[in-house]
Design goal:
With 238 residues, the chain is of the alpha+beta class. The chain folds into 2 domains: 4-66, Arc Repressor Mutant, subunit A (Orthogonal Bundle), CATH 1.10.10; 73-230, Chorismate lyase (3-Layer(aba) Sandwich), CATH 3.40.1410. The chain has helices at 4-19, 29-36, 40-52, 83-89, 108-114, 161-167, 186-192; strands spanning 56-59, 63-66, 73-76, 94-105, 121-131, 134-144, 172-183, 199-209, 214-222, 227-230. The longest helix has 16 residues, at 4-19.
């Protein structure tokens, strides 16, 4: 049998969330846990379901807020596309915040991922992508400086390194991505206005040119409630 007390807790939370207007704050965790007769740890576990659905959002030091329904970005993974392109198909407004472009030098991990010598000059592009003014993704691209330097990015940057490279005619061909569900690290949680440890989808990718060179090593963090990634696979032997 299922965990009926936990299911009842989720049902009670669903009613509370439904009855609370978008933008309003839910009772504090201690008060809500006391009201529902559960521990704070159990309450947090139950609330994660609603966070991944995009129904509530916890802000560090501010509390838990009910959010209005937003269109989910639904896309397949068979073709590499930028977040801008995905959102454009749905007529969603995507904006960039917390943009940082910096110069770094390849450590062991970056040197291995990019196939460059240690201490190679690199360009790191970090930014938060927002939909309907809400942070929904945090993207980090690391590229060799001879592929992209800070001076080459336009003053008005839409947030997509992929689109920039394609737009100038770079011979890109494939991308290899590892996909995992992780607990949000503290620095990422702060940028996405969620709690440390909240579930995120993480894509770690390498972007290749036709010559086989890796020109971009990226880490992308997505809030599950705002994205629905899927893949269409062919049945074997057909």
């Amino acid at each position: 049998m299922g965990n009926l007390p936990f299911q009842r807790l989720q049902s009670d939370l669903a009613v509370l969330i439904t009855q609370t207007k978008a933008g309003e704050r839910l009772p504090s965790e201690p008060n809500l846990a006391k009201r529902l007769g559960v521990s704070r740890a159990t309450l947090r576990e139950a609330m994660r379901t609603f966070e991944t659905q995009g129904l509530i959002r916890r802000r560090q030091g501010a509390g838990t807020f009910v959010v209005g329904r937003v269109p989910v970005i639904d896309t397949g993974l068979e073709v590499l596309e930028s977040l801008d392109t995905m959102a454009g198909r749905m007529n969603l407004d995507i904006s960039v915040s917390e943009l940082t472009v910096s110069q770094t030098f390849a450590d062991k991990d970056h040197a291995e991922a990019l196939g460059v010598p240690l201490a190679t000059k690199l360009t790191t592009v970090q930014r938060v992508m927002r939909a309907d003014s809400r942070p929904v993704a945090y993207l980090v691209d690391v590229l060799p400086d001879d592929v992209l330097s800070a001076q080459q990015l336009p003053e008005v940057f839409g947030g997509s390194v992929l689109d920039f490279l394609l737009g100038r005619g770079d011979p890109l061909t494939v991308s290899r991505a590892d996909i995992s569900a992780i607990g949000a690290p503290a620095e990422v949680a702060k940028l996405l206005e969620i709690q440390r440890g909240d579930v995120l989808l993480k894509f770690t990718s390498q972007l290749y040119t036709t010559s086989g060179r890796v020109v971009d090593f990226s880490h992308s963090y997505f809030l599950p409630g705002y994205f629905n990634f899927h893949i269409v696979r062919r049945v074997g032997n057909i």
